[in-house]
Amino acid sequence: MCKICELGYFLVSDTKECVTSCADGYYVVEGSDTEPKMCVKCSKNCISCSGIQGEFCSKCELNYFLYDENMPQGCQSRCDDGYYKTTENEIAKCKKCSVIENCITCKSETKCVKCGNNQYVQEDGTCGDTCPEKHRKGDGVCEECPSLCSDCQESGKYACDVCDSNTYILENKTCSKTCGDNYGAIKDTTPNWTCKRCSDYYCKTCEISTEETCVECQDNYYYKRERNVCGNQCDLTTHFVNVTEKSQTCLMCNKEFPNCQTCTSQRCTKCELNYYTQPDPPYLCERDCPIGYLNIYGVCTKCVDNCLDCDNYLCFTCEDKYGLSEDRLTCEHCEDKKCLKCSLGKEKYDKCESPKLVGKDLTCVDTCESGYFSFNNVSCIKCDDINCAVCDRFYCKECVLGKFLFSGY
């Protein structure tokens, strides 16, 4: 081992080698008449140092930090409380958290991570006595509440106590602008509406108050109103499908059309027992058919033309100015245009148009012939006495030729 190197060389203190310059991690100690110039190793993990004894490190090894203050302190693997890690001119340093008041630990000159004096780290990295709105006091830090949440103090940073207005609180205590599929909204003790799962899995949206009502079913499912459930098909014998922009609903025929057994969305197609489908819109079910119609298998079917009352295709009463044929199958127009009712063929009349009267041969006449009187200005009625030529309803007024009134009657 060398003890003294030639002129212009340095003696390495730990290896006793002679070198022209000191390597990283060593500092120069000037020699004397009796001591050679030497390269002395810096403190542990220091690659550049100075000072009489190398006590001042100016650069540390990788992953080690140098304290910023000009003091005899070696390289550290971490920064103490009150200091933060930084790099200046490619030198890793620990700098003091002196800019932020009451900051114990920081990660930059303006970003505190731990405050003292019972203060909380604010969102901007400073220290404060309390936390702003929509934040909670966490472990010494102001934690931002979840999205759409206005108060999360009790539930923690990932849950919400009170959501923003016009939003809903979900089962996992987060906030949403909508409840989502298979959920409905219910007002609870908080200012918010809470989303609760619909009891029917196939219900897409439900309303929940004292009772739950499904508003919209999942795709390809139908809402059955009387049972308040969603099914994959309707019983089309007693229901019909009502399609709206939002949903398809199974509606009971007898709810939409009273006394109806089967129907379409437009009309009743079959009435319940002892009710008959009416012939005109909205095709309701009634106890009787209208005049001029008869019941055929529960449907009001029109009688023959100009017939008012019929059964089994036989007519019993015709309209005014029509008479019933002898076979009762048709109503034919009376021959006399002044006749209102006629029967037993077209030439016989039951009632004539005023002022005409029904004569003795059931034709329409202007006046009653001898031996008849006008009854209610409708028809000619035969006098009670066959020898009476002129009479009224009660008395004979004039006898036929050769006969005389008795005591003026």
Automatic annotation (TrEMBL):
Q: Where is the R-spondin Fu-CRD domain?
A: 75-138
Concerning Gene3D superfamilies, the annotation shows: Hormone Receptor, Insulin-like Growth Factor Receptor 1, Chain A, domain 2
| UniProt cross-references to InterPro entries, sorted A to Z | Furin_repeat (IPR006212), Growth_fac_rcpt_cys_sf (IPR009030), R-spondin (IPR051514), Rspo_Fu-CRD_dom (IPR043601)
**Which Pfam families does the entry link to?**
Furin-like_2
Give the UniProt entry's GO cellular component terms: extracellular region
Q: Which organism is it from?
A: Entamoeba invadens IP1
Chief subcellular location: secreted
Keywords assigned: Disulfide bond, Glycoprotein, Secreted, Signal
- Which cellular compartments is it found in? Secreted
Q: Which SUPFAM superfamilies match?
A: Growth factor receptor domain (SSF57184)
Protein name in UniProt: R-spondin Fu-CRD domain-containing protein
- The keyword Disulfide bond is annotated on this UniProt entry: yes
Q: Which domain of life is it from?
A: Eukaryota
Q: Does the keyword Signal apply?
A: yes
